[in-house]
Amino acid sequence: MTALLDGIKQNNFLVIGRAGMDFFPDPPGTKTEEATTFQSGLGGSAANTAAGICKFGGKAALVTSVADDSIGRYCVNQLKHYGVDPTHVKPVGGEYRNSLAVYESRVEDHQTVIYRNGAADFQMTNADVEAVDYAKYGALITAGTVFAAEPSRTAAFHAFDLAKKAGLPIIFDVDYRPYSWPSPQVAEDVLSRAAALSDMIVGNDEEFGFMAGDISKGQAKAKKLAEAPGSIIIYKMGEKGAVTYHDGQKIETGIYKVDALKPTGAGDSFMAALMASLAAGHDLKTSIHRGSACAAIVVGKPGCAPALPTPEELETFLAEHPGPSKG
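Now predict its structure.
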C-alpha cells in the first residue's frame, strides 16, 4: 500500500475518461417533460472526479476526446473553469458527439436520460495516451466506461501499461454503465481484466457482483482482489456503508444521512474527496468517511460538478452533521 499512497500524496493525478454536458431542469423538483428552463454543467465521471480534485486544491489532467464543435468546446472551457489541465483533450470531427445527460433534481420518480450515440470519448487512441508524460503525475485514475468500446478500450489498457512502467499506481472506479457496452459478457471480461491490473478499486456491490458473475459473490470477489500486495478495495453498499479491504484488514464505514435532492453524482464526488483526503495525509478510514460526506453534499444540490464542495464547505458539513452511520 505504501507505493499507492505515496503516489496519491503527490496530489497530481492523470485522469482518463469522458467529459460531457449535463442538463438539469430548473427549479429543482421539475419533471423534464414539464421544464421550460434548464441549467447546464460539466458532466462525465472522469471529468467530475478531476474537477473535484482540483476544487479540493489538488492537480488533475484529463485525457479524452471531445467533439470538434461548440459542445466539445464547452466541455473544455468547463474543465479550465475548475482548474483541470486540458492539454490532452483532443477534438475529433465527423459525427462524433459528446455525452449528454439530462437528469432531474428529485428522488421520487427520478428520470435520467443519457445520450451516448457516436460518443466522442470512445475515439481516444494509443497515440493520445502515448503523448502523455506519465512521470509528471503521482497516480492514474479511470472509470469503467473508458473500456466499453474501441479504440478507447485498447488505448486505456495501453495507458495502464505506460503508467505501470512509469511507476504510477492505478485507481479504478468500476462505474459499470450497461448502455455503453455491447454485451454484459464483454463488460464482465474487460472490467475484470482492468480490475486485476489496478492497485485501488472502488465499486458498489452490484458492480463487484457483476464481475463475479453473481451479485451474491461480489464481496468474495472484492476479497479476492484484495489479496494483491498493497491493494485497496472499497466495496460500497449504498445505505449500508462500505467495506474496505487492504493488507488483510477489513474496515467498515457508514454514510452521512441527508435528505437527497437527486441520486446522481455521489460516486464521482466520493472519489474526488477520497483522493484529496489521502493526499492531505488523512488515514484510510477517515478519508473514506470524508468521501462519503462529499457524496452526501453533492446529492443534496443540483448538478454534479457544480455541486462539488470546497474544502471549507466539506469541513462545515463534517462539523454540523452527526458521525456516519450504517443502515
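The longest strand covers residues 59-67.
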